[in-house]
Amino acid sequence: MTAGFHAEVLYTAGYAAALVGIAFALEWLAQSTHRRSERLRVAGFTYHHELDLWQCPTGQHLQRSASDERRRVVVYRASGHACNACHCKPNCTDSQDGREIEHRLDSWVQSELRRFHRGLSLVLLLLAAVLLGLEMRAADTRRDWMMLWALLLPIVLLGGRLMITFLAREPSASAPDAAQAEPGAMNWRRG
Fold first, then answer.
1. pLDDT score, position 38
2. Where is 164: in which H helix or E strand?
3. Residue 187 CB-density burial (10 A; 0-12 exposed, 13-18 middle, 19+ buried)
4. Are the C-beta atoms of residues 98 and 83 closer than 8 Å to each other?
């Protein structure tokens, strides 16, 4: 016994706390990496909200060319003629049809990438909860049981909160249209 707790209980509590820490570190890393990646994909391009178009570093405009409500994407494209004559084309696009930017209507919270990372975090939280629950069944002192319960309760509450966002598949009714969406929710592809 250490400080009135059995060593096995302390080890299990420490392992569960480490799993929770890893789960939340994964959430933070995934979100920050996603935001940085999205900023880099449109580096040098400027979104003009009032005109609903993108402007490339050389001044060419990328006009809205297509929308896909099922995928929740709006596509902006520059003219192929302008891009093919541009001195920056080799560093910008390999398409003969012009540079394209895909504007995602869904934020990070609603994306499939978020769902994947959220699923990993939920598995880690579930593992921590199962370990604590199993240890609670074996705990033979009230003090051990209370400490395990004090760790399990926040894990279950936080896991429930994450689960709600994981299961929410439909975009919110107040999702902005392409003209109102944040430029930070963009990505582009060469093509």
1. 76
2. helix 142-167
3. middle
4. yes
What's the whole-number mean pLDDT along residues 159-183?
Answer: 58
Q: Which two tokens stand for residue 74?
A: 């709006």
Note the pLDDT of residue 110. 55
Whole-number Å distance between alpha carbons of 191 and 187 = 13
Neighbours of 27 (CB within 10 A): 16
Look-up of token digits 């929770």: 20
pTM above threshold 0.70: no
Place of tokens 């789960």: 23
Return d(Cα 154, Cα 96) in angstroms, integer.
Answer: 55
- How far is Cα 47 from Cα 61, in angstroms, rounded to an integer? 10
Q: Are the beta carbons of 191 and 95 closer than 8 angstroms?
A: yes
46-48 and 53-55: which strand pairing? antiparallel
Are the CB atoms for 74 and 62 separated by under 8 Å?
no
CA-nearest of 120, 154, 123, 128 to 12 is: 128
